[in-house]
Amino acid sequence: MNQSDTVEFPHKTGHIRLHDEAGFEGMRKAGRLAAECLDMLTPHVVPGVVTEDLDRLAREFILDNGALPACLGYRGYRHTLCISVNHVVCHGIPSERTLREGDLANIDVTVLVDGWHGDTSRMYGVGKVPARARRLAEVTYDAFQRGLEVVRPGATTGDIGAAIQAWVESQRCSVVRDFCGHGLGRVFHDAPNILHYGKKGTGEVLRPGMFFTIEPMVNLGKWQVKILSDGWTAVTRDKSLSAQCEHSVGVTETGYEVFTASPAGLFQPPIQAD
Ligand code: MF3
Ligand code: CO
Ligand code: CO
User: Fold this and answer.
1) Ligand 3: distance of its center to the CA of 166 in Å?
2) What's the whole-number mean pLDDT along residues 68-77?
3) Residue 270 — pLDDT band, cuts 50, 70, 90?
């Protein structure tokens, strides 16, 4: 990045960028398209669908809307989506795999619109899923909300993690430690790191104009994960079910703005349980 580019990056506090109204406008457009992409996929996430066909639908949707799939080519990744099924924690690679009745899937998309990144993921139930799968998706969505609700100027990144961890552990689930939320904007993965566990009052102080993701990964079993030999796919070590919820948010003068809210009202898509 170019430090002298003061038009695009008007302020910088330490290593964390503070964005102006033009940044908020850019993120609203990017976040909206990312959410619309997940909305568009909803009726296609059914038993028998091939995950690389979902990836193709998403890629075409993004390109048709004049945007770019940010993951395609990112660090050698060759797909538009990450589709993480059952005990896959994140970075599941679209493939010839077919989704089956009862699968619990996270779909994560990042779009690049006019240079701004919109990054979001949600849970989808494939047909009817076991009650424990639906419960995990709900705990995970609520974990995201608990983290979101502490976002305001003066709070810290550690406050977000502490709120998420307290909720998840009260539900006898665990928070994945190996992946975190991240600053974003014109840069895909930027400062600060947003840990989904930790202590109140630690970390970076939030200020208006900071943009980052909150994206807790929650396991029904233990938090430990491992990466498969493809170099991407993260799975729970104990093979327990895992879920995730991600949104791109901005810190405002009084609290937060979610850039990736679902225009179709599918912020928390319905998951049918047995
Ligand atoms: N969207 C993911 C995130 O939440 C990043 C995926 S990187 C990829 O940060 F290369 F795996 F696509
Ligand atoms: Co992210
Ligand atoms: Co993401």
Assistant:
1) 23
2) 98
3) confident
pLDDT tens digits for range 5-61: 333 444 556 689 999 999 999 999 999 999 999 999 999 999 999 999 999 999 999
pLDDT digits (tens, 9 = 90+) for 19-30: 999 999 999 999
180 within 8 A of 195, measured Cβ to Cβ: yes
Please name the residue whose Cα sits nearest to atom 12 of ligand 1: 71
User: Cβ(74) to ligand 1 under 6 A?
Assistant: yes
Taking the alpha carbons at both ends of the chain, their separation in whole angstroms is 50
Radius of gyration (Cα) for the chain, nearest Å? 18
Ligand 1: atom nearest CA of 232 is: 11
Is the pLDDT at 224 greater than 60? The verdict is yes
The alpha carbon of 55 is separated from its chain's Cα centroid by a whole number of angstroms, namely 16
190 in contact with ligand 1, CB cutoff 6 A:
no
Mutate to test the pocket of ligand 1, among 62, 74, 188 (most ligand atoms within 8 A of CB): 74
Strands (E) across the chain are located at 11-13, 16-18, 68-69, 81-85, 88-90, 104-113, 116-125, 174-175, 181-183, 190-194, 211-214, 217-219, 225-227, 234-236, 242-244, 247-251, 256-258
At residue 68, the pLDDT reads: 98
pLDDT tens for 154-166 read 999 999 999 999 9
| 67 phi, psi to nearest 5 deg | -115, 180
Read off the tokens for 52: 């690389």
Which residue CA neighbors atom 11 of ligand 1 most closely? 91
> With a 6 A CB cut-off, is 91 part of the ligand 1 pocket?
yes
